[in-house]
UniProtKB/TrEMBL annotation:
Signal peptide: none annotated. Gene3D superfamilies: Nucleic acid-binding proteins, Winged helix-like DNA-binding domain superfamily/Winged helix DNA-binding domain. Pfam families: S1_2, WHD_CvfB. InterPro entries: CvfB_fam, CvfB_S1_st, CvfB_WH, NA-bd_OB-fold, WH-like_DNA-bd_sf. This is S1 motif domain-containing protein. Residues 219-274 form the Conserved virulence factor B-like winged helix domain. Residues 4-63 form the Conserved virulence factor B first S1 domain. Belongs to the CvfB family. The lineage of its organism: Bacteria, Pseudomonadati, Bacteroidota, Flavobacteriia, Flavobacteriales.
């Protein structure tokens, strides 16, 4: 069964007066209207198409790229407010509907909103909501420190930029970690800096320096910084001491401090390691 609101790879099955009918291996077919038909094609060519409902609520395919997909977030402009709700420009002919009950605050024509697109189970229609919090969770976090992530900036506060992480979690880019002009609605790449015990995710926009060389080196350097530039550990320390203080094996620890030492970031002395000012 074709999923509404998603991309599908389909074959050209036959030509008709209104357009091409496309099919998949499951036997589903859908119309690609003439206005979206490629200038050159052959029967059984494969096309990547987006499937949604047309003005008559029939599944239809398009080669246009919408600004948002099913079960994801986007930043869309309100074009119309009617007696039944608001409508958003999402890059396709038929605009995206937002019921009044799904508006965090009344939408206004010309304003932009962070929204989530869902499939209304009662009507089988695509719709959007600006009540997005319920679609985000920081329980069962699916990212880890140093991971590269996709971000949608949801709003700016005095603390920094709040971001939707991989369309699943809430994250924060602290003001002191922002070195460029960013605004609500920006879609960016970022990296996980830290996952706090309470589930909050700290994000940075630049990959941290030692990650590409030796992930544990960055971790140790952060621990050094947090301890006034000193840790009472060195390459001859007992493995149990290293494990209890840093959670690392002695082999991993020695490799990491070797990286830091070669890059002239630390000094290794008899009583421990020191950062170089």
């Amino acid at each position: 069964m074709l999923e509404i609101g998603k991309y599908h790879k389909m074959r050209i099955d036959r030509e008709t007066e209104p357009g091409l009918f496309l099919s998949n291996e499951a036997g589903d077919d859908v119309l690609l209207p003439n206005k979206y038909v490629p200038s050159e094609y052959k029967i059984w060519d494969e096309l990547d198409v987006y499937v949604y409902l047309d003005h008559e609520e029939r599944p239809v395919a398009t080669t246009l790229k919408p600004y948002i997909e099913l079960n994801s977030f986007g930043y869309l402009r309100c074009t119309t407010v009617s007696k039944i709700g608001a409508f958003l420009d999402w890059g396709l002919e038929k605009e995206l509907f937002v019921p009044f009950a799904q508006q965090a605050r009344p939408m206004k024509v010309g304003s932009w909103y962070i929204v989530y697109m869902y499939l209304d189970e009662k009507t089988n229609r695509l719709a959007a909501t600006s009540k997005t919090i319920k679609y985000l969770s920081n329980e069962g976090i699916e990212v880890k420190k140093y991971d590269k992530v996709d971000l949608l900036i949801s709003h700016i506060t005095d603390r920094g930029a709040n971001a939707i992480v991989n369309s699943k979690h809430k994250g924060l880019i602290y003001k002191e970690d922002i070195f460029e002009d960013i605004r609500t609605g920006d879609q960016l790449e970022g990296w996980v800096k830290k996952i706090r015990p309470d589930g909050k995710i700290d994000i940075v926009l630049q990959e941290e320096g030692y990650k590409s060389i030796e992930p544990n080196a960055q971790y140790i350097y952060e621990e050094l910084t947090a301890n006034d530039g000193f840790l009472p550990l060195h390459d001859k320390s007992d493995p149990d001491d290293i494990q209890s203080q840093l959670g690392l094996s002695k082999k991993s620890f020695k490799k990491a401090i070797g990286t830091l030492y070669r890059d002239r970031k630390i000094l290794i002395k008899e009583d421990g390691i020191y950062t170089i000012a």
